[in-house]
Amino acid sequence: MCFGRCTRCIGCKLLILALLSIVANILLYFPNGETRFASEHHLSKYVECLHGILGGGLLVLIPAAVFIGLHNDDCCGCFGHENCGKSCAMISSVLAAFVGILGSGYCIIISALGLSHGPYCYTHVERNWIYPFTESSGGYLFEYNKWSKCQEPQNIVQWNVTLFSILLVLGGIEFILCFIQIINGILGGVCRLCCSHEETFAC
Fold first, then answer.
1. In this predicted model, what pLDDT tens digit does every residue of 42-67 receive, in sequence order?
2. Degrees (nearest 5) of the Cα angle 168, 98, 64?
3. How many CA atoms within 13 Å lie on the side-chain side of 89?
4. Which of 58, 62, 103, 106 is the most buried (most CB within 10 A)?
5. What count of other Cβ atoms lies within 10 Å of the Cβ of residue 155?
6. What is the pLDDT of residues 9-55, one digit of tens each?
7. Residue 87 neighbours by CB distance under 10 Å
8. What are the C-alpha distances in Å from 157 to residues 130, 137, 195?
9. What is the pTM of this model?
10. Rounded to whole angstroms, how far apart are CA atoms 52 and 185?
């Protein structure tokens, strides 16, 4: 059966995606490479939710590690049948996939909210740090002429839109891969159990 091979492939992809999510979230903390905005707490509240580091990152690294190491885990077999142990490992991978679903789902939700509410920035009109695009419900994304409202940090709208969009896409791919593994794990576990029972009756 190719269920185990598919699981390891999914694990490798999740590992790469999780690392990219962590990097993208870290970059959100440093607009234009500057650290002062983070130290002065002049960042969007959605940046501080750690959705890329915790959600799309660490919580996805857990199933990634489980999937990659699945070929070494046969649960010691049962009643002398290796297939039974392998089915146990495949079904346990489903639980790990649910952890990935939660993490990637959190990343998707926060990224979507971050895009919808827009950045936290300083505007000359109000002469204060505000969320100037909150009431637009994401409409500002297509109104490029209004992006100049944000004076500090420079190019913060482009910075946030790019990174939140990347995190949204990464979270979406992670969610899909974890969902695929849930199906793959269930099918792999059931098929191996069936094969094990057939071998038992054949003996």
1. 899 999 899 999 999 999 999 999 98
2. 75
3. 24
4. 103
5. 12
6. 999 999 999 999 999 999 999 998 888 888 888 899 999 899 999 99
7. 25
8. 13, 15, 56
9. 0.83
10. 26
Give, as one character, the DSSP assignment of residue 53: I
The per-residue pLDDT for range 89-116, each reduced to its tens digit, is: 667 788 999 999 999 999 999 999 999 9
CA–CA distance, 120 with 132 (Å, rounded to integer): 7
Give start and end residues of each alpha helix (H) in 29-155.
Answer: 36-39, 59-68, 82-117
Residue with the two structure tokens 């990347």: 166
Residue from 7, 24, 184, 29 nearest 107 by CA: 24
Q: Which amino acid is at 65?
A: A
Tokens of 128: 């204060």
| Tokens of residue 138, six digits | 């994401």
Helices 156-202 and 59-68, packing angle to 10 deg: 30
Is the bond into 153 cis (omega within 30 degrees of 0)?
A: yes
